Amino acid sequence: MSLENLWAGWRSEYIAEATARERSGALTHDVESCVFCRLAGSGAPSEDNLVVWRGECAFVVMNAYPYASGHLLVMPVRHVDALGELAPGESAALWSAVQDSVAALEAAYQPDGLNVGANLGRAAGAGLPAHVHFHVLPRWSGDTNFMSSVAGTRVMPETLAQAWKKVSGAWPT
Ligand SMILES: [Zn+2]
């Protein structure tokens, strides 16, 4: 089984479980079954966990379902479902990680532009609304717009492992 499949399997299992719980009216704030919390505790950044950078309050990981090469997810270590629940130090760490992500993607891919954004809540398109996260992805003139690119899966010209190597190598020090 490839790393991508292993990672993706985790996520789809989580989504199926979370959706079932939500439909049954149960709480979806279960840290135990949160794939992002598992990633938060998955050890040092490596090609295996696809974590690019890890700090005390925030970390950055390759998106298992990228809309573009180099698509990153930036999130707090702590399991919170609203931006307002972040402490000032956590917000600062999160934003600093977003800035570093932009710098790394600019250096690694020389894109024409980037998207930085968050889907807050399932109605806004979040697959994992229980753990706040930002998307950071490179864009090129002439590629599809953000709304259509987030709506479907696209064929990527490089593997997640290749993208991890490229972004990790370009991470600001
Ligand atoms: Zn979580």
Give a short overview.
The chain is α+β, with helices and mostly antiparallel strands. It has one domain: HIT-like (HIT family, subunit A).
Spell out which ligands are present: zinc ion
- How much helix is in the residues? 25-40%
CATH architecture: 2-Layer Sandwich
Low-confidence stretches: 1-15
Descriptive tags:
binds zinc ion; 38% helix; disordered N terminus; HIT family, subunit A
Strand and helix map with partners:
Layout: H1 3-23, H2 35-40, E1 51-54, E2 58-62, E3 72-76, H3 88-109, E4 113-117, E5 134-139, H4 146-151, H5 160-170
Antiparallel strand pairs: 1-2, 2-3, 3-5, 4-5
Helix pairs in contact: 3-5
The chain binds zinc ion (ZN).
Structure description:
The protein is α+β, with helices and mostly antiparallel strands. It has a single domain, classed as HIT-like (HIT family, subunit A). It contains five helices and five strands; from the N terminus they run ααβββαββαα. The protein has helices spanning 3-23, 35-40, 88-109, 146-151, 160-170, and strands at residues 51-54, 58-62, 72-76, 113-117, 134-139. Strands 1-2-3-5-4 form a five-stranded antiparallel sheet. A hairpin with a 3-residue loop joins strand 1 and strand 2. The chain is globular, with a radius of gyration of 15 Å. It starts with a helix and ends with a helix. Mean pLDDT is 82; it is low at 1-15. Zinc ion binds at residues 31, 34, 36-37, 79, 131.
